[in-house]
Structures are given as structure tokens and as C-alpha cells.
Give the backbone structure.
Amino acid sequence: MDRKELRGVRGWLAFFVLALCALGPALELVQQVGDFASARQNMAGTALASRWASYETVAWVVFAVTVLLRWAAGFMLLRVFRRVSVRVAVAVLFATPLLSQLGNLGAIAAAFGDSAARAAGGEVVAGLLRGLLIAAVWTAYLMRSRRVGNTYPGASGM
């Protein structure tokens, strides 16, 4: 093996694992905490406060599930140097925005009714498209990267 051959979880691949496991969840956590604090304050003392608490519980569960999926994919990328790790990472990249956005939409419908879910639909679609676009960009990197192909034999061009 040539010493200059790109191999191992370094460079953009290391950044991808960091973004997948830490940066993405941290940014979502900060945004969710801020959004929830503002909404909780606006709904305090209203008839919607108990419904909000139900929605918030489900939304935190959805968030936790997506974070656990990301950590599992990151763990595989760091420890299992086979093509399956890249496949799992790609699946998680596409599953996370779907679970997050559709889970939150379902929670809105359950807590506040179908009319509230319809009103949130545009924001959900925008979040879903944003997440799928990010997933597509990272998938293109994972499929074309020489480092990824060398680190996870058979991964390039899966």
C-alpha cells in the first residue's frame, strides 16, 4: 500500500462524522430549546399549554431517536471498516429528516388537530427538502471520495 494513499477517518470524512454525530444534533438542540422556550412562554396560562406539553414530549422523543440513529451510524463509520457502514450512514442521512419532520408533523396533528398540522405543512416541507438536499450532498461525497473507498472497501460507487 502506498503511504500517500488516502485512508482512515480524516479530512472531510472526519468532518462528516463530526457533523453527523455532534454538530448537527447540537445545532438542532439549540434551535429546538429556543423555539420551545418561546412557544412555552407564549402559551403559558392558555388552554393550549397542556397540549403544548404533549407535543413537546413527543418532539423530544423524535429528536432523541434521530440523534441515536446518527450516533449509531457514526459509531459504525469509526469502528466497522466495511461497505455496510457507508450504506447505514447514507440510510440515516435520508431517514433523519423524514423521521424528524414527519414525526413532528404527527405530533402537531395529535396535540393540536389536523388544521394545525396543515398550517405547519409548509414549514415541514421546507425542513424536509433542506434535510434531503444535505443528505444528497453528503451521499455524493461518500460515493465519490477516494478516502471513503479506501477506508471502507467497496464503498465508492455503491
Observations:
- The CA atoms of residues 8 and 151 lie 5 Å apart.
- DSSP finds five helices and no strands in the chain.
- Residues 17-151 form one domain.
- The radius of gyration is 19 Å.
